[in-house]
Amino acid sequence: MSKLINPQETIKVIQSNDFKFQKRFGQNFLIDESVLSNIITSSNITKDDCVLEIGPGIGTMTQALAEAAGHVITVEIDANLIPILHETLKDYSNVTVIHSDVLKLDLNELIATYNSGKPIKVVANLPYYITTPIIMGLFESSAPLHSITVMVQKEVADRMQSGPGTKDYGALSLAVQYYSDPYIVQLVPPNCFIPRPNVGSAVIRLTRHSDSPVKVINDRWMFKLIKAAFGQRRKTLLNSLFSGASVPKEDTLTALRDMGLSETVRGEALTLSQFASLSDLLINYCSD
Predict the structure, then answer these.
(1) pTM for this structure?
(2) CB 167 within 8 Å of CB 219
(3) Cβ neighbours of residue 113 under 8 Å, at least 6 residues apart?
(4) Residue of 181, 184, 162 lying closest to 171 (CA atoms)
(5) Is 261 exposed, middle or buried (0-12, 13-18, 19+ CB in 10 A)?
(6) What is the mean pLDDT of the chain?
(7) pLDDT tens across 212-242, in order?
(8) I need a surface site. Which of 23, 42, 185, 246 has the fewest CB within 10 A?
(9) What are the φ/ψ torsions at residue 255 (nearest 5 degrees)?
(10) Beta partners for 124?
C-alpha cells in the first residue's frame, strides 16, 4: 500500500515542498487507506497490466498502483507537482511521469509507445470540474481500454448509471452505457480528502463493452441527436431535434410513428436502443 496514504504523510509532503493547492486544477488528495485499497482491488490490476493514472497529485495512488501493476503512466497537469512526484516515486522503476494535459495527449500513440498498442486500464481520482470531458475523451479516442475506475462526484456517478425516466438520466448516462458497463464501487465522504471537497464522492468502475450493446449506423450522429434531446429537457423530442439538430419536424414525426412513440415524447423517455433506431431513421440529416 502507498507510503503516503495518511493525513500526516500528506501534510508533511505538502509543507516540506511549500505546495499550494490550486482551485483551477480541482486538487483534493486522498488520505483514506481503505478507500485506496478498494480502488486498487476493484480495478482488478495485475502485474500484466499497464495502467494510466490521471492527476496523481503527490503520488499517493501512484505508489499503490506501482505495487500492483506492471507499468504505470501517470499524467499530471500541474508543473508544481512534477518535482514532488519525482521524489515520492523515485523508488518505483515501473512508473513514467508525464507533465501534460491529458485532454491534449494522443492516447493511441501513448498506448502504442508504452504498451505496444495493447489495452490498458485507467485509474484516477479525477478533478471534478473536468470529469465528463476526460471520460468522454477516453471513450471517443477509440483507444484500447479494458476499464476505467475513477473517483468522481457522487451525483456524476449517479448520472452515469441512471436509466430512462429518472431525473439523473441524460446524455452522459447514454454515452457511458453505450461504451461501458458502469458499477458504483463505493461512496466516499468528504473527510477522506485533503482539502475536503464540498460534495460527496463515489468510486465508479466502467468496464468497456467488447461489443456495443446497440448497433447504429453512425454513433456520432446518434450522440448529436442525444445532446439535442437533452439540451432543453422540457421540450418535446420533436422540438428539441428541430432546434438542436436541424431535423425537420415532419421527419421526426414520421420516425416517431414508425417506432410507435407519441409525438409529445421527451428525450428522457427513450432508451439507448430507441435512440439508435431513431438515429438510423434520421440518418439522411447527418452532416458528417
Answers:
(1) 0.92
(2) no
(3) none
(4) 162
(5) middle
(6) 94
(7) 899 999 999 999 999 999 998 889 999 999 9
(8) 23
(9) -65, -45
(10) 54, 150
